[in-house]
Structure formats: C-alpha cells, structure tokens
Amino acid sequence: MADLTHIDADGRARMVDVSAKPATVREAEAEGRLIMAPETLRLALSGGGRKGDVRAVAEIAGVMAAKRTAELIPMCHPLMLSSVKVSVAPLGDGSGLGVSAIARTSGQTGVEMEALTAASVALLTLYDMLKAADRGMEIAAVRLVAKSGGASGDWQRA
C-alpha cells in the first residue's frame, strides 16, 4: 500500500508539493449511474418536462464542477483543465441514466478527482431536477474508469 502523501513527517495534513514533477498530458475518465423508475427515465429522455432538457443541464453542471474541484476537495491541486466532457445517456438495461466524465490537462498532477467530481455533480443535478417525479432514485457506482499519464502510468478498470 502506498504511503499517504498528504501527511507530512509531523503527521499533519498538507498539500503535496508537485513542483519537481514534469508536466505531462494526463487524462481520467469516471462514471456513475442514476437508477430510476421507467416513467422517470421516459420523462428525462423526453427533454420536454417542466425543467427542460435535464441531461444537457447535468452535462454543463458536471463541466462547471470539474473546474471547481480544488474548492471542493481538501488538498486537491487547482488545475488548468484543457478539456472536460460529460455525457449523459440511458443505460442499456433501461434502469436509468449513465454519466461519463472525461477530464484532461497537461500538468504536474492527475485529473482523477476532476473526472470523479464532474460525474458526481452531474448525477446530483439529474437527481435534483427529477426528484419531484421520483424520490426513490439511487445514485450508484461512481468510480474511476481509467487514467493515463504521470509517474504512476496508465490504469484501466478491468
């Protein structure tokens, strides 16, 4: 198991110093699901509900959240993101909506937290906009799918 790098020699929390690390292209993808009743899914896909196109709003919310990750996650480095893409689509089994978020930068530290934040906020936005129709929805399986770049190399969920 790797050492907790956010703890200094005195046992205090600190932001990791990445100034000596080379800048490289880094990318991360995260995903999650919002499980809902079939009628709620139909409403979300129609785009014509009282709240409009909930998928488009969630995608924008995810991009905006990725850009503010350092304000939300303690010790997370503020990054200049070169791109963030958030996609909301129906799950293949018809159980709800899936969210995919891809964050990219050329920097000294990775973008896993930005991708995870984007996916999480997109899911929360969907929940918020659809909760009047279905309070029993469930946010599930928010997870890192893949990351590339940096000293730790590439990683892909099996």
TrEMBL record:
EC number(s) given by UniProt: 4.6.1.17
InterPro entries (alphabetical): MoaC (IPR023045), MoaC_bact/euk (IPR047594), MoCo_biosynth_MoaA/MoaC (IPR050105), Mopterin_CF_biosynth-C_dom (IPR002820)
Keyword Translocase appears in the UniProt entry: no
Amino-acid positions noted as binding substrate in the UniProt annotation, renumbered to this chain: 75-77, 113-114
Keyword Lyase (UniProt): yes
Pathway listed: Cofactor biosynthesis; molybdopterin biosynthesis
Lineage: superkingdom: Bacteria
UniProt keywords, alphabetically: Lyase, Molybdenum cofactor biosynthesis
Similarity section: Belongs to the MoaC family.
HAMAP family: MoaC_B
Name recorded for this polypeptide: Cyclic pyranopterin monophosphate synthase
